[in-house]
Amino acid sequence: MSGYLVSGLPIPVVAPDGRDQPFWEGLANNRLLLQRCNSCRGWQWGPEYICHHCLGDDLGFEEVTAEGVIYSHERVWHPVHPALRAQDGPYIVVLVELPQAGNVRLVGNLLGDPRQKIPIGGRVRGVFEHHPDSQPAYSLLQWELMT
Amino acid sequence: MTRSLRGRVAVVGVGETAYYKRGGSPDPEFKLALDAIIKACSDAGVSPRDVDGFSSYSNDRSEPSRIAAALGCHELKFAAMQWGGGGGGGSGALANAAAAIATGVADCVVVFRALAQGQFGRFGQGPRSNVISGPFAHTVPYGLMSPAQMFAMKVTRFMHDYGVEQPALRSIALASYHHAQNNPRAVMYGRPLDEAAYDASRWIVEPFHLFDCCLENDGAAAMVLVAAERAKDCPHKPCYVLGAVAGSQYRAGADVHNTPDYASSSFKPLAPRLYDMAKVGPGDVDVLQSYENFTGGVMMAMVEHGFCEPEACNEFFVKERFLAPSGDLPLNTSGGNLAECYMHGLGLNLEAVRQIRGQSTSQVADVNVSMVISGPMVTPVSSCIFGSEATV
């Protein structure tokens, strides 16, 4: 399956220390898993060794509904990576806030017309984008506006 | 005794190499560093052999021990690196140098930055690796990988929150290009910019047109600092450090754009500390150099330093206000990072010193308080205020 962006960008892999491994495994299985503290129940993103709320180190990953709100956005025109020169026109990057997970934020692309007007505060639904034929295989989490 | 840098240290020498388009330097980066340092020492009337400390930022590759060996410095007492934050470290490196002198750790410290992007690779491009891990794995595969892309998202949210329109950003670009036309050192000398050319320029990433983005350059800049009592013996008017601070807000470094106070230039907690140390307020500033990585960051940093309320940006950010000598807040009077040279912002500190001395190519009359804001939107950021003899 092809993705929102052309292929050829760096492929995401699990951090060498494994601290975001559940997140990437979750995406591959159409699930969104984010880091949560087992002691104080606080959320945090990106994943870290300790919880910034209570400084405890009993951290886990918990499934979250892949829905959120557009916190900010940008429409990118200039290709800063050679692969992006093959992209047909601009593309949209959104910063999505997740109220159900302590308002942590995720970066993704906004599916649909790349020239669309982008509403800050607009509600979006996650769309899992799989690249099984890539070497290595990987999955991304994209977003589309709820109507 | 009050713990403050105010009036205890002065900049007595400034120097820079010729400024080149990225990849255009005939010399390697380390030689550029030495050239700028020797020029700054000459300007200060100080022998390079008597420099005993070096301070830089953004992981500058020219290490103090190698520099001291190359220059034949008698003794090395201080070798400081302001961690992280790229150009946000410029005034922080100066703060570190001033602190070392004020506390007797060193006597004559050079603050410098050298860059040869041709020799070592460009800033404005994404990673070329096949795979990516860690925090950037959560942004780069979505096409968010360059500095312009990292910061456009902050500026977009700020503009949304306060109803800021594009001409506010444009005024900053026009001011830098205007001043560069008076400055023969400027890479954009002889290449003026007007409203129509700005409006017609291509988008890099909204809300940044081409001219909202800094240059990429090769070169080096340096300044020499000594204790205030020694500064009076140097050839030029001393330029006193009234205040210099560095840092950032709560969890500014949270990964993947998770900083709680997101639409910020990172200066909110710094500005009160700066003014408190310098014992001046924004209304006392005669001339301002504010780091343009991207124009939106200049606007946010000026708001957070109290020059304008966020709701008033559309009225405040007009070109005429920023032009020397007639504007009420002359801004980026050398041409800055947009049009003089992207010397990772240290050129702004040199220009602030020249304004105190009366040596700018766009000189403002009777400058006593000259301010620099370094590297908005990164972490840590920094800012500093210089004063003339009359202020101490």
Write up what this structure looks like.
The complex is a heterodimer of chains A (147) and B (392). In chain A, 5% of the residues lie in helices and 39% in strands. Chain A has 147 residues and is mostly beta strands. Chain A has two domains: 15-64, no CATH class; 66-147, OB fold (Dihydrolipoamide Acetyltransferase, E2P). A five-stranded antiparallel sheet of chain A has the order 7-6-5-8-9. In chain A, strands 3-2-4 form a three-stranded antiparallel sheet, with helices on one face. The two termini of chain A are 25 Å apart. The model of chain A has no long low-confidence stretch (mean pLDDT 97). Helices cover 32% and strands 19% of the residues of chain B. The model of chain B has no long low-confidence stretch (mean pLDDT 96). Chain B is globular. The chains are: A mainly beta (147), B alpha+beta (392). The interface between A and B is large, with 41 and 43 residues.
Q: Main traits of this protein?
A:
heterodimer; A: 147 residues; mainly beta; OB fold (Dihydrolipoamide Acetyltransferase, E2P); 2 domains; 5-stranded antiparallel β-sheet; 3-stranded antiparallel β-sheet; 1 helix; 39% strand; globular; B: 392 residues; alpha+beta; Peroxisomal Thiolase, Chain A, domain 1; 10-stranded mixed β-sheet; two-stranded antiparallel sheet; 14 helices; 32% helix
How is the secondary structure organized here?
The complex is a heterodimer of chains A (147) and B (392).
Chain A: E1 11-12, H1 21-28, E2 32-37, E3 43-44, E4 59-64, E5 67-76, E6 91-98, E7 104-109, E8 123-131, E9 138-145
Antiparallel strand pairs in A: 2-3, 2-4, 5-6, 5-8, 6-7, 8-9
Chain B: E1 9-16, E2 20-21, H1 29-44, E3 53-57, H2 64-71, E4 78-82, H3 90-102, E5 108-116, H4 117-120, E6 131-132, H5 147-162, H6 166-180, H7 195-200, E7 203-205, E8 208-209, E9 217-227, H8 228-231, E10 239-247, H9 270-278, E11 287-290, H10 295-304, H11 313-316, H12 319-322, H13 336-340, H14 346-357, E12 369-374, E13 381-387
Parallel strand pairs in B: 3-4, 3-5, 11-12
Antiparallel strand pairs in B: 1-9, 1-10, 2-9, 5-9, 7-8, 10-13, 12-13
